[in-house]
Each structure stands twice: as C-alpha cells, then as structure tokens.
C-alpha cells in the first residue's frame, strides 16, 4: 500500500507526471496553511512569526504564508524581491545574513525595509552608511552567538566558533553594537541557535538558553529592547515519510522564561518574533521522479533516476541540510511485496550523485514513477541546479485536486557592464 497520506493523491501525482513530466516538485498549499496554523498554535499567542524564504521562495508558497499577517525573513535581494512580489509589506521584512553588501542594504532601504539583523560592527557600519546614502532611518537587531543550549539539532548555528553573530562573551563589541550609529539604531537582539531540533525538551532548552543570554546582554548594556527575534529550530521530516511534530508544551515554557526575563512582553515591550522555513513548507512538497535504469554492480542494485543532487539535496556534499537518505514510494503500485535494497542515484556524471544508499523498493524497473515525500523545504533552490546543465525541475502548485500553476526553474546568464 502507499505511504500514509499519499494513497488518495495517486491519481493527481500520476496526472502531473504525465502532463508536465519529471522531475517535478508538487507543492500543496493546503498543507502549507496547515503547517502554519499548527506552528502558530504551538507558539506564544503574543509573538509574531516570520517566514524564512531560504526554505522555499516559490511565490505561491510565500504568498500563502503571508496570510494572517506573518512577516518575512530574507537574506538576499532575490529573496527580498520574492517577498515584496508576494505582497509582504516592507515593514514586516527583516533582512539578515553575515555578509551584506552596501548595495544590497541600499536596495533594501530604498524598497522600504527598515529592520535588519547585524552580525558585527562592520555590518552595522555598512547599514549606517546605507542609511546615510538613502537619507532614511533604520532599526537593527544585534545577532548574538549564544552559548550552546543542547547537543541536538541537525545544524548548529551558535554555541561554537562561527561566522554568525557576535560572541556574548565579547561584551566590548556588543556594547558598541548596542549604541546607535548615524541613522541606524539598535532595538534589540536576534538569536538562532540550531535547526531541526527534534527533541521537544531540547528545543525548549535552546530558547531558554538564548533568552538567558539576551537578558544578560541587555542588562549589562542597560538596553530596554523593543524587539527580540528568537529564531526557530522547529523540526520537520525531509525526503522520508513522516508528519509534523507538535509542541504542546513549548508556548508555556517560552512564556514562563519571558515572564521572568522581560515581563512587559505580553504588552509588546518587547515584541517577540519567531522565524521558520523548514517546518512551514517541508511536508507540503512531493518530488516526482522516474526510474531510468536498474543495474547491479559488486552485489549492489543501483536505481538511476532522472532526479539527482541537481534537483534534491545538492548541498549534501557540503555537509549541509540533508544526508543522502531519501525514501521514496512507488506511485500507483503496492509496496507490500518483497523489497529490494537499492542505492538511489541521479543522472549526473559523478559518483557523488547519490540520493540514498539504503532505500528499499518493490520490483524496481525503468519507467516507474517514484514520489519522495516531505520535500517542500530546501529542494530545488538548495540543489546544484547549474551542474551539468540539466533542465531544472518543474514546480507544480496544487490545492486539493486542482493544479494552480506550473513553472520550471531556469539557470541563465546575462552580460554585466563594469560598475562606475
């Protein structure tokens, strides 16, 4: 039988593969809405939520996640354009990232963005320079490298030497950052300790640890913060069966910490912000791929797909985002028979093009349509789209049984004139 939640979609997935071809990502907007509602219910009711576009910048996905007044967290001019084009008000956008060019900051300010996360004095000074050039004021949050809160999470952002933020032990630099510079003024802090923290107790501990560090930093600087961006880390399955975890105790735990550290937070003093990308989009996506060949070598069975690391998980080679462990199911066929252990590989001319070294399929053969579940986050735009110049995957947006749009990602080049 099909994997849970997929059997009733067999006809739709088969039709999409037939009409649009593969590889194809299918994004279900109803699942996006469901994930957003679930996360909002598990967070403090007086907090705000920002969607991190790095997870999936598809305009339909971004637009759906802006429903209800959510904001956007962006880290490039491309993500900024996607957020604005999807209808996000610029005042609800926070611009982040450890390496912002002056021209990026100037473009963001000119577009109406007024909130930034700064990582260092040089980053803050560039923001102040951009404010002076554009003649506008901006507020910024100081990103902190907080002490390690737990040993959990698929990718740690803080609690070790890192390019992100300023070490909380560096009180001199933090004190300087918490003083205004030109038309740029500090209004609070930004923390984000780890991604994909699956253990609920560990996730809560990450927030507790961050809040303790923020309280100490603000107290030492005698800063009454107006905004605290506490990050995320909410887990979701990727490229394997599974459902979103719920966190019934998370809101109460965070609220208790906030009541002790910043008792005015319930009145918006400070305003609390969270951010998420993976949780909001992962389970909304399904990758359709066709088996091109089945071959044996050295006692192992290799299943060659038309989707490789150019389509899914291309950053695996950098040790990021996803290990090669995709677990697809066969669309329109039973998987109750005898399963064969296979290695899933893509069409690229490199032995690194591996999506799974331990998948199991029933009677794999050329022409089969496979579906890799939970691939709505860190899919095409986190893959090696330009490698070997294969066509990009198609992205199909559905709501219920209706296809709302279909498009193909394209890597292109353009002439560039010298800057004067």
TrEMBL record:
Ranges for domain Orn/DAP/Arg decarboxylase 2 C-terminal: 25-376
Record keywords, A-Z: Pyridoxal phosphate
Chain ranges passing through the membrane: none
Molecular-function GO terms, alphabetical: diaminopimelate decarboxylase activity
Gene Ontology biological process terms from the UniProt entry: lysine biosynthetic process via diaminopimelate; polyamine biosynthetic process
Catalytic machinery residues: 349 (proton donor)
Name the UniProt record assigns to this protein: Type III PLP-dependent enzyme
Organism per entry: Streptomyces tardus
Lineage per the UniProt record: Bacteria, Bacillati, Actinomycetota, Actinomycetes, Kitasatosporales
